[in-house]
């Protein structure tokens, strides 16, 4: 009988760099992975995604009154993403993929 793999070895991990905008009005980032929201913190973190790259990842800012800076992308072959919201707490954000040089 095969033993199960240790936790954390069955999924691919990507790096997500969440850049804090200058004017947030108390906003916190929210990361969505395949439509499921997860509260996050500003800065760099890692997230587990499917190994086939079919995962859709999204980021938005939320400050108890409204949500802004929404951006999303499919993981594909990216190793990480950098998120930047707009200069003001309105409009869309930008999610840029980073790929390693093989």
Task: Describe what you observe in this structure.
This protein is mostly beta strands. The protein contains no helices and eight strands. It has strands at residues 12-19, 28-33, 36-39, 43-49, 56-62, 67-74, 80-84, 94-98. A four-stranded mixed sheet has the order 4-1-7-8, with no helix packed on it. A hairpin with a 4-residue loop joins strand 5 (56-62) and strand 6. The protein starts with 11 loop residues before the first strand and ends with a strand. The model has no long low-confidence stretch (mean pLDDT 84).
Rg from C-alpha positions?
A: 15 Å
Percentage of residues assigned to helices: under 10%
Number of helices in the DSSP assignment:
0
Order of helices and strands: EEEEEEEE
Number of strands: 8
Low-pLDDT windows of residues: none
Q: What is the arithmetic mean of pLDDT?
A: 84
Output the structural class.
mainly beta
The side-by-side strand order for the widest beta sheet comes to 4-1-7-8
* Main sheet summary: 4 strands, mixed
- What form results from the Cα inertia axes? globular
Alpha carbon gap, first and last residue: 37 Å
Strand percentage lies at over 45%
Summary of the model, kept short:
The protein has 102 residues and is an all-beta fold.
Please write out the topology.
Blueprint: E1 12-19, E2 28-33, E3 36-39, E4 43-49, E5 56-62, E6 67-74, E7 80-84, E8 94-98
Parallel strand pairs: 1-7
Antiparallel strand pairs: 1-4, 2-3, 2-5, 5-6, 7-8
Keywords:
4-stranded mixed sheet, 0% helix, 102 residues, mainly beta, 4-stranded antiparallel sheet, 8 strands
